[in-house]
């Protein structure tokens, strides 16, 4: 068996896939892409939209984070990351939808870019207007995710699910920005994130120190 994952270290999408592989104890090779390499022809042949991650498993190629994680969960079912009953699966899928449609593109991405990537790595001035524009959606997402978590240990019930992995990979660095720290403080999401980041799979996939320092 041969699994290769292509991505840029620090990407929460790449990290979600690596966490999944670590949780299932699946051996794999990480093919590290340099910044900008994901837009080059070689990678565009794997992922025509020029994003990360991409996966190759014994000749089978796949891209899109959610698709990769679901594929790994079905191909390597132990331990399962998909709840066993319909209601918990529906809740997991609902949270994944929130992450992909609202939380990442409209809240996490503009805040993280203007607090971490732009000013610290690219030498750009933070766009405070873009951050301010993202905050109402960020509040809505944090409030709703907090409500959906409720008193459960994880979004899928008593065991971690795909939704937990994808959200925690996003929140880990974001929660260290001033806006993220404000948004998560006092919510159930705060101890939930601590539970997630204390797992060996998270410790083994820490983002580069330069990103942690930037946050």
SSE map:
Layout: E1 3-7, H1 12-23, E2 29-32, H2 41-44, E3 54-57, E4 60-63, H3 65-75, H4 86-121, H5 128-149, H6 162-174, H7 178-184, H8 189-197, H9 200-203, H10 209-214
Parallel strand pairs: 1-2
Antiparallel strand pairs: 1-3, 3-4
Features:
58% helix; alpha+beta; four-stranded mixed beta sheet; 215 residues; Glutaredoxin; Glutathione S-transferase Yfyf (Class Pi), Chain A, domain 2; single chain; 2 domains
Descriptive account of the structure:
With 215 residues, this protein is α+β, with helices and mostly antiparallel strands. It folds into two domains: 3-75, Glutaredoxin; 86-214, Glutathione S-transferase Yfyf (Class Pi), Chain A, domain 2. It is 58% helix and 8% strand. It has ten helices and four strands. The chain has a four-stranded mixed sheet, with helices on one face. β3 and β4 form a beta hairpin. α1 runs parallel beside α3, α4 (86-121) packs antiparallel against α5 (128-149) and α4 runs parallel beside α6.
